[in-house]
């Protein structure tokens, strides 16, 4: 148990006092904006900015002043400002061996509860490298001598498309590697009934039946199977949810079977590989990273939020007639996503990845 009223944070404030203080501050900022009074806050990039509709507005303001939060977000940016580093240019000019200018951490005064300390030596090296990469328009910087990705005799690239909390309407897979008696290439398992729908269970059951067949064929031939995704959180969520929601439908597996697959060495998430292997000044999303491996999407508007709009039009979710061209657009988009994953992982295990500058080079 935690007593929220007991002083526990910097400055002797309790959790509730800290909350009240921050809430009051945010109300004042909002009221000033509503009344068109002078702004009480300046933009600073945090993790949530990537999904905020106002990000383009704030990004323009941050770029105009070369704000340090463009490369180092959240509390780390606040700490850097406290040390006199307010711009990307200033951060890029820091010598990590010398350290930051300004007061020492224990002289900088009390901080907000939960704030991170001033970056340690390793963090500072990476922060400076990020700033230099940003200024040099370098999309990736290697943190390691050479990235490693487990490879298989038979390989699948998997990508799922969903509509918010309503369900997963499309599972796309790309089969490659050794011959197991199945046609290689892209397959889509989809429902075009508007979500939520029981037909989602039918499409998921067909996907799982096909996946199970691939796994069985590999086992019979003594071949190692690896199935790849990019950021498994969404795929794992809908694997589990689909098994639970459509239990008993043809092809839908028991929950334990899904958990066995997720925990197996066959299921590989490439996002941690990228996170551990690279600094990414412009973000770690697949659409930010895959171009460095040489991949580009057919659709110039490819993106998760746009795909939800396309889906609504494809199935006539808002009352219009179902739009067949939008269905095809979604299939091309999904096929591109799995091919992007394939391109990324083959690049990661090729000599070409060594063309990416190493952090020591910066």
General description of the model:
It is a single chain. The chain has three domains: 1-41, no CATH class; 44-137, no CATH class; 154-355, Nucleotidyltransferase, domain 5 (2-Layer Sandwich), CATH 3.30.420. The protein is built from twelve helices and seven strands. The chain has helices spanning 15-34, 55-65, 74-82, 88-92, 121-135, 199-221, 232-245, 255-263, 270-277, 286-289, 304-315, 324-348, and strands at 141-142, 154-162, 168-177, 185-190, 225-229, 267-269, 278-279. The strands form two sheets. Strands 4-3-2-5-6 form a five-stranded mixed sheet, sandwiched between helices. The protein is globular, with a radius of gyration of 24 Å.
SSE blueprint:
Elements: H1 15-34, H2 55-65, H3 74-82, H4 88-92, H5 121-135, E1 141-142, E2 154-162, E3 168-177, E4 185-190, H6 199-221, E5 225-229, H7 232-245, H8 255-263, E6 267-269, H9 270-277, E7 278-279, H10 286-289, H11 304-315, H12 324-348
Parallel strand pairs: 2-5, 5-6
Antiparallel strand pairs: 1-7, 2-3, 3-4
Any key phrases for this structure?
YprB_RNase_H-like_dom, 12 helices, Nucleotidyltransferase, domain 5, 362 residues, alpha/beta, RecB_nuclease_TM0106_put, 3 domains, YprB ribonuclease H-like domain-containing protein
């Amino acid at each position: 148990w935690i007593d929220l009223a007991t002083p526990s944070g910097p400055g002797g404030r309790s959790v509730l006092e800290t909350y009240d203080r921050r809430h009051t501050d945010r109300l004042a900022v909002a009221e000033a904006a509503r009344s068109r009074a002078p702004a009480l806050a300046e933009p600073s990039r945090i993790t949530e900015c990537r999904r905020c509709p106002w990000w383009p507005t704030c990004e323009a303001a941050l770029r105009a002043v070369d704000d340090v939060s463009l490369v180092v977000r959240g509390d780390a940016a606040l700490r850097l400002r406290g040390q006199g580093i307010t711009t990307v240019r200033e951060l890029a000019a820091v010598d990590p061996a010398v350290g930051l200018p300004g007061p020492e951490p224990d002289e900088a005064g009390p901080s907000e509860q939960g704030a991170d300390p001033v970056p340690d030596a390793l963090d500072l090296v990476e922060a400076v490298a990020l700033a230099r990469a940003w200024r040099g328009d370098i999309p990736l910087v290697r943190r390691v001598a050479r990235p490693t990705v487990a490879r298989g005799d038979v390989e699948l690239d998997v990508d799922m498309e969903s509509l918010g909390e309503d369900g997963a309407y499309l599972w796309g897979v790309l089969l490659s590697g050794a011959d197991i008696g199945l046609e290689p290439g892209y397959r889509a398992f989809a429902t075009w009934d508007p979500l939520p729908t029981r037909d989602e269970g039918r499409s998921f059951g067909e996907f799982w039946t096909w996946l199970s067949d691939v796994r069985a064929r590999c086992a019979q031939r003594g071949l190692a199977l690896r199935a790849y995704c990019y950021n498994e959180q969404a795929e794992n969520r809908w694997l589990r949810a689909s098994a639970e929601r459509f239990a008993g439908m043809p092809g839908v597996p028991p929950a334990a079977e899904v958990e066995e697959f997720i925990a197996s060495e066959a299921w590989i998430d490439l996002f941690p590989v990228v996170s551990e292997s690279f600094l990414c000044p412009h973000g770690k999303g697949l659409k930010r990273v895959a171009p460095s491996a040489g991949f580009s999407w057919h659709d110039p508007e490819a993106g998760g939020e746009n795909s939800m709009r396309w889906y609504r039009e494809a199935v006539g979710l808002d009352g219009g007639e179902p739009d067949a061209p939008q269905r095809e657009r979604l299939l091309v988009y999904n096929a591109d996503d799995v091919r992007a994953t394939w391109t990324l992982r083959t690049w990661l295990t090729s000599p070409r990845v060594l063309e990416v500058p190493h952090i020591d080079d910066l």
